[in-house]
Amino acid sequence: MKRDFNEWLAGFRKSIADDRYYVDFEKVFQNVDEIKIELNILNSLIGSVDIEGDFKLLVKKYPEVMKCIPLLLAVRANEIYAMDEDGAFDYNFKKVNLSVEQYVVFMHKTGLFDLLQKHIINNLVDYATGVETGLDSNGRKNRGGHLMENLVEKFIINAGFKRDKSYFKEMYIHEIVEKWGIDLSAISNQGKMEKRFDYVVKTDKMIYGIETNFYGGGGSKLNETSRSYKTLALECETIPGFTFVWFTDGAGWKSARHNLEETFDVLPHIYNITDMEQGIMRKVFV
């Protein structure tokens, strides 16, 4: 029976965020703990009357404190590039590569000396925890993608498939070809393109290449995704023994409904979370 696209789209979810989606505090605390001693040493600069002199003495006696500085600027790197009227400088905070005077200039111009000397903060460990929390929130997009992958995998397992036996995670085209000897040149541009499927399910009768994604918000990425999967669906129709399956969801699709509908019309095996909850995997993977 032909499915109704509008009815299917109406069931898309606003979010699939779990409790750990917003901030991974375990990771935050671990990152701060790794530099906790150095941060406490730097705490001695808070309220300093002679911030330049105290900084120079501190760096000379405890050079390892330098590795904390990028985090205080919410930068997750060992090097920071900065330019001013005196030129361009590439500051290395893991292995000091410039004079201490130049690092003093950096601390002044970035505002870090003001942050410390004017007692704007009371404790660098607490401050660093806040910065890490903010940086970690930037990882929500990646966590969102993994949430959908994990959700799909849970339903694959519930359908009776075993990892690395009857289903496989993150499998490239060449790995599928080598493992089962199937000709996938139609979707690899004669071996010139190396695509990776999120999951591959193998039954006695068929190999299923699976893509998963969830879009809570709109954007050009959605139109690009639906167009590329429409092309992939048409290419896969020419391959005996191989079926393309797409699990997607998210309210973001409502802003790109027309492109999604075009793919829906040519791809029989496109499903949302509701479909998975209603046992679609047991019906499809045969």
SSE map:
Layout: H1 5-10, H2 25-33, H3 36-42, H4 51-61, H5 69-72, E1 79-84, E2 87-92, H6 100-110, H7 112-117, H8 124-137, H9 140-158, E3 167-172, H10 173-180, H11 185-188, E4 196-202, E5 207-214, H12 220-236, E6 242-249, H13 257-266, E7 270-271, H14 273-277, H15 280-284
The dominant shape is elongated
**CATH C-level name of the largest domain:** Alpha Beta
β-strand amount: 15-25%
Tally of structural domains? 2
Q: Helix segment count?
A: 15
How would you describe this protein?
The chain is an alpha/beta fold and 286 residues long. It has 2 domains: 5-18 and 140-284, 3-Layer(aba) Sandwich (Restriction Endonuclease), CATH 3.40.91; 34-137, no CATH class. 48% of the residues lie in helices and 15% in strands. The chain contains 15 helices and 7 strands. The protein has helices spanning 5-10, 25-33, 36-42, 51-61, 69-72, 100-110, 112-117, 124-137, 140-158, 173-180, 185-188, 220-236, 257-266, 273-277, 280-284, and strands spanning 79-84, 87-92, 167-172, 196-202, 207-214, 242-249, 270-271. Strand 1 and strand 2 form a beta hairpin. Helix 2 (25-33) crosses helix 8 and helix 12 (220-236) packs parallel to helix 13 (257-266). The longest helix is centred in the middle third of the chain and has 19 residues, at 140-158. It is elongated and about 80 Å long. It starts with a helix and ends with a helix.
